[in-house]
Structure formats: C-alpha cells, structure tokens
C-alpha cells in the first residue's frame, strides 16, 4: 500500500509530493480508489484517533462526497476491516524486510532497523494503528504480535554483537522504546529519520562495560 501523504489534507490544491519528492497532481473529478480511501483513514487515525473514523469525517478529509466512499465500501465496518487487512499485509512486508537485514553485521543491522521504523510508510501507519489499538482488541493483538517479532529481531542483533541474553534483552527494550518514542515525539517522518540516523544512540547502546564499540569488532 502506498503510504499516506498530504494530498488529503489540502486537497483544494490538487497537488502533493510522493515519497520521492515528486509533485503529483490530480484533477478534482478524479474518483478516489479504495487504496486512496485507506490512506485517508490512516491519516485520520494517526492525527485524531479511532473515534474520528467515521464516514462524514473521512469524506471531509478527502474533500469528496459520501458517494465516493460507498462506491468502494458497503459501510464503515467493512471499511475498518479493509484497514486491518491492509495493515496485516504491511506487517508481512515489514517482517520480510527485517529478515533480509539479518545478513548485515549487527551494528549496521540495528541502524537499518531504527531508520526503517521511522520511514515515511512506517511513521504514519505505526502511529495510526497504535492509536486504534487503544480501543480495538483486534488491532491491539496485531500490534502486540508485530512488537514481539521486532523485539526478538532486535534482541538477536545485540546477541550477535556479543551481549549476554539478559543485556541483549535490556538493550533491545530500550532501543525499541526509543523508536516508538520517535514516532510520537516528532512532527514528520523526515524529522524522525533525521534523529534516527544519529549514531550517538547506538554508540551508547553498544558500549560494553565502559569500552567503546569502536574498540572491538561486531562479534
């Protein structure tokens, strides 16, 4: 699924930038696709919470009439089901991406994980689903499962670096919490990525008993 962007916030301009910074323009008469509607929903979820996930609010955000919504979805419940389905597909892609990082040295792997967590796609979807998980048990279960998988992956990276199981779990928890904090304490995906790319945090987390990480190899 294409990550949400700003075109539904200021639709009157008929212009937005995609993830590559290219300006994309749509004619006012262009019918929204089902994927477009899902993007609208994730934006509303992330910014206003699950209580705002109503047909009227979605149409207002998209700048279109109800007819466009009902062209694709029978009702708000089927729409919410579609949101969860698209979220599950996103999680599957995220798991595959994590598994592909396993070939990297531990430090590079951890750095890539942090940057991926606050990528434009992750930034909006993670914020949206964590808001939804506050009130919806199905969404909460999906978030817990995704968190568990990510924590195990991060723990393994610290173990591969040479930490004991207990130290690896402690550092993985702190790294995970820092990543989630970036999702909620920054105003944009770009700002979150700029913070995540700083290596000082990993220098701290990979320090062993006062020895700087640069004093030994990845293993």
What does this protein look like?
By secondary structure, this protein is mainly alpha-helical. It has a domain of 126 residues. 64% of the residues lie in helices and 3% in strands. The protein has ten helices and two strands. Strands 1-2 form a two-stranded antiparallel ribbon. Helix 6 packs across helix 7 and helix 7 crosses helix 8. It starts with 14 loop residues before the first strand and ends in a 14-residue tail after the last helix.
How much helicity do the residues have? Answer: 55-70%
**Overall number of strands:** 2
Q: How far apart, in Å, are the first and last alpha carbons? A: 37 Å
Name the average pLDDT. Answer: 77
Topology as H/E string? EEHHHHHHHHHH
Question: What spatial order of strands do you see in the largest sheet?
Answer: 1-2
Q: What structural category arises from helix and sheet content? A: mainly alpha
Q: Strand portion, in percent?
A: under 5%
Overall radius of gyration: 20 Å
Question: Which runs of at least 5 residues are low in confidence (pLDDT < 50)?
Answer: 2-29, 212-219
**Shape, per Cα inertia axes:** elongated
Number of helices: 10
Short structural summary:
The chain has helices spanning 34-48, 55-62, 66-72, 76-100, 106-117, 120-133, 137-161, 165-185, 189-196, 200-205; strands spanning 15-17, 23-25. It is mostly helical and 219 residues long. Strand 1 (15-17) and strand 2 form a beta hairpin.
